Amino acid sequence: MSEDKRCPIEATLSLINGKWKLIIMKELSKGPVRYGVLEKALPVSAKVLTQQLRELEGDGLIVRTVFPEVPPRVEYALADKGVSIYSVFSEMRRWGIMEGDSIDAKCRGCKNCIPSDYYRKNTQA
How many Å apart are CA 28 and CA 79, to the nearest integer? Predict the structure, then answer.
């Protein structure tokens, strides 16, 4: 193995590191979402949301689709790589449930820890 390669944990964290990236991906887990819907759902500035979306797209975790309409319609969705990272989310959920009292957490049963039926039907994750 090349010494130039990073630790797999560090490499994974570099993809999802950022205050909003995991929250954005959780929102996208429901299926394709327009920018305006994301903007309303998250208490984040437009500048930060745009930056985080660009980084997620650049890393291949999400896909940006521009529809040739007037006015233009833009949707964001999880890419196959973004869907596949949900195993990490599942482990985070498991650990959060296990340590719930000590970290002030409780599962609300939102089921956003796994991709929606949309992704199970439309991707090969």
Answer: 10
Please state the pTM of the whole predicted model: 0.78
**Nearest partner of 24 among 73, 66, 96, 78, judged by Cα:** 78
**Sign of the torsion angle spanned by Cα atoms 58, 81, 61, 6:** negative
Average pLDDT, consecutive stretches of 10 residues, N- to C-terminus, the chain (125 residues): 76 88 90 93 94 96 94 92 84 84 79 61 47
Whole-number Å distance between alpha carbons of 35 and 18: 18
CB 66 within 8 A of CB 42: no
Residues in the chain, overall count: 125
The DSSP line for 44-93 is S-HHHHHHHHHHHHHTTSEEEEEES-SS-EEEEEE-HHHHHTHHHHHHHH
Beta bridge partners of 66: 74
